[in-house]
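Marked as duplicate of an earlier ticket. Keeping the data here for the record.
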Amino acid sequence: MITSFRGKRISGILTVMPENEYDYDEETKPFANLQTKRLKKIMGFGKRRAAKADSTVSDFCICGMNYLLDKGYLKKEEIGAIVVTGLTPDYFIPHVSNIIHGECGLPQDVICMDIPQGCVGFMLGALQAFLLLDVIGDKKAVVFNSDVLCRKDRETQLSSASFGGDATAVTVFEKDSSAPDIYMNLYNDGTQRDALIMHAGGYKMPRSPQTAVPVDIGDGTMKSYDELWMDGSRVFNFVQKEVPPMIDEILEYAGVKKEEIDWYLFHQPNKFMLQKLSDKLNIPWEKVPMNVVENFGNSSGSTIPVAITHNLSRLLLNSSCRCCLAGFGAGLSWSSMVMELGNLDFCEMIISDY
């Protein structure tokens, strides 16, 4: 898919971080070796944020929504749609969007929608928001990208040197007749879906004491079926193969040269992958924020807005930048977008109690 959108813009971005912060060296101390030290240096592991053991996606989303309402950044009567993307819902039924709707006391004509999506969650949420703006009149669409894949007690040790994180993003989309056109493409390859997989938790393999037992996933790494399994080499090769031509395509479609892009805002799996991707695209590292994993961990579908609020908040409140956004991962899915981003009503990161 490749398409464009006219008369639409992002008017504000809020990211909500868990209260608990963890240090890579401390968490990997029980099995620290040359490999863990090498991973820290190459991948950029540092600190991360993880939800508390009893915190849920709706906790973070409601916290973010109430913050926007209390600050006056958003009014209940302005909201026409709520979209939630993520892989860790509170329940199978009801949806997180309906929980947000009820807890925040929103009008009955607000559209509520959940989309189970991982690394491309921000892009899929944006696509849905752009489409919804055509049917909700002059109201706004609010997209939540949220997961609690890493929630845990502080005392629980890591079983391997993976370094994910949790975060929630709240992005407001609205109509604006003066906004420059937005260009977007999206691709999927379901034949490679098992490169990123969490076996247990659905109806195919319900969670049980047996699925919590660690097993050798094939390379000496011990993980349970309750955890996320990733074939790192397949995912890396997929990103290097599919993402550069996707970026080239969307830039050509938008009529923009690489050097005319101010910021390349990519999903943040780790620093090494972003460096190699930047080299493949022949774009300077200075234009590609790569510091999300070292400060917060890889929070799946919310890493793009986390990169924005962490690195560009002051800049985007008072000016506008031409940006290329891209998400890639679970599915396997990959998507990119070229748009003017800036002069935002708000662009903040807050720390929650969850």
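See parent ticket for discussion. DSSP finds ten helices and 17 strands in the chain.
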